[in-house]
Specification:
Blueprint: E1 3-7, H1 12-27, E2 31-35, H2 41-46, H3 63-75, H4 78-83
C-alpha cells in the first residue's frame, strides 16, 4: 500500500478529476489524502477520501467565491474604457 497526497484547488474543474483519481487509487488499496481549502471539504469527504484542510484561518469556507467576485468588480468595465 502506498500513501498518496493530492493538492488541488477547491474548484469544481480541478477537484472532480482529482477526487476521481483518488477514488481509483483507494479502490486499488492505497491510502489517499486530499489537501485543500475548506471549500473542497464536502466533495472530498463525499468521495471517501481523507481531507485535512489548509489555511482555515486565512481562507474560511466561501472566501474563495467572495474573492473571485470582488476581483470581477475591480476589473469590470474600467478595463475596456481604456481601449475603446
Amino acid at each position: 500500500m502506498t500513501q498518496f497526497g493530492i493538492i488541488c484547488p477547491a474548484e469544481t474543474g480541478p477537484l472532480n478529476p482529482m477526487t476521481t483519481l483518488g477514488c481509483e487509487l483507494l479502490r486499488r488499496g492505497h491510502l489517499v489524502t486530499v489537501f485543500g481549502l475548506l471549500n473542497a471539504k464536502t466533495t472530498t469527504l463525499a468521495s471517501g477520501l481523507e481531507f485535512p484542510p489548509l489555511g482555515e484561518d486565512e481562507f474560511p469556507a466561501g472566501s474563495i467565491a467572495e474573492n473571485h467576485s470582488q476581483r470581477g468588480k475591480n476589473q469590470g468595465s474600467s478595463c475596456f474604457s481604456t481601449y475603446y
